[in-house]
Amino acid sequence: MLKKKIFENYKKSADYILEKIKTRPELAIILGTGLENLLDEMEDKLEIDYRDVPNFLVSTTNNSEGKFIFGKLSGKFVICMTKRFHYYEGYDFDELAMPVYVLKLLGVKNLILTNAAGAVNYNFYPGDICLIRDHINFAGLSPTRGNNLSEFGERFYPIDNLYDKELRSLAKKSALEEGIELKEGVYFFTVGPFFESPSEIRAIRSLGGDLVGMSTITETLTAGHCGIRVLAFSVATNYSSDRIENMDGSEVEDVAREVSPKLKNLIVKIIGELE
What we know:
Elements: H1 2-21, E1 27-30, E2 43-49, E3 67-73, E4 76-81, H2 98-106, E5 110-119, E6 129-137, H3 165-178, E7 182-189, H4 198-206, E8 211-213, H5 217-226, E9 229-239, H6 252-273
Parallel strand pairs: 1-4, 1-5, 5-9, 6-7, 7-8
Antiparallel strand pairs: 2-3, 3-4, 5-8, 6-9
Helix pairs in contact: 1-2, 2-5, 3-6
C-alpha cells in the first residue's frame, strides 16, 4: 500500500508538469552551483516553480527557489532543474530519489548532472572541468532503500556503468573539438554541510577520490535504478582542506561562474551530437 502511494505521488508530480509542457523531453539537466547560464541558450522557455508541483520537494537552502525550465537546446526538447536537493537539507535519501523518478515518468532517457566540487587529486586545480567516471559513496546510504518500485526497476541492479561510457566518450570527443581541457576522475560523496577535515581528505585521496562534494550520488543511483543514462561533470572550485589553509568556501560560486561559459559550450555541443 505504501509503495503504491509513493508511486502515485510521483505520477501526480509528473502529470502536472507534463500538462504544462505538453511534450515529453528525452533529456534532463540538473544544474549545480553557479552553472545556471546554460539557461540563456534555451529557446521557447517555460518555467514551473517547484512549489507549484504537487507533492514535489522544496529546497531549504538560502538561495532562490528552484524551478523546472522546459525548452529547446541544440534543437532538442530539454527540461532543466535549476536547484537540486541535498541530504544536508534534512531530506532522507529515499526522499531524494523523487526528482529523478519524476523525470523518468516524463520520458527522460539521458540525464546531465553538473556540480561544484573540491579538488582532492594533486593534479586537479580550481577551474578544472572534470568528467566523473565513477563515485565512492562511503556514507553507506541508498536512495532506493525500502519498498522497491518495480515500475522503475529491479530491486538489485548493477552500478558499474552508472556514468555511461558512451556518453563519456561523446563528452571527450566534444571537448577535443571545442578545445576544452577535460579531466576525468572519481567523485567522493560526503554528507555535509560542513567541509571535510584535512585528515578526511587524506583518507579520501588514499581511497581513490579525485573530487569531493555533497551532491550527485542520489541522482545517479536513482537514475541507474530506472534506466536513465547519466553524464556528470564536476567543476573543481576550490582546493581540498589539506591543500589550503582557512578554507571557507567563499570562492566556490565565483570560480563556478568563471568556468561556466566553457562548460555551457561543451554541454550545448554534446546535446547537439546526442542521438
